[in-house]
Specification:
The protein is α+β, with helices and mostly antiparallel strands. It has a single domain, classed as Irregular (Factor Xa Inhibitor). The protein has 3 helices and 3 strands. A 3-stranded antiparallel beta sheet has the order 1-2-3. The two termini are 18 Å apart.
């Protein structure tokens, strides 16, 4: 069987944990930060786990993760 191709855009956005779940960074922290409150920006810090229904789609796009 041929090797499966990894979707590179998904590979850059998601990382697999040891338990097989996927981590992602929260959206909205790149630009236009002046009008966002400190509380809002603090909430956007750090990573977040992907929800269950979306995990299967990511697993299909990252066959070797």
């Amino acid at each position: 069987m041929a090797k499966l191709k990894t979707n590179k855009s998904v590979q850059k956005r998601f990382r697999a944990t040891k338990s097989g779940k996927f981590k992602k960074m929260r959206a909205g922290k790149r630009h236009l930060l002046e009008h966002k409150s400190s509380k809002h920006k603090r909430h956007l810090r750090g990573s977040n786990l992907v929800t269950g229904a979306f995990q299967n789609q990511i697993r299909r796009l990252l066959p070797y993760a």
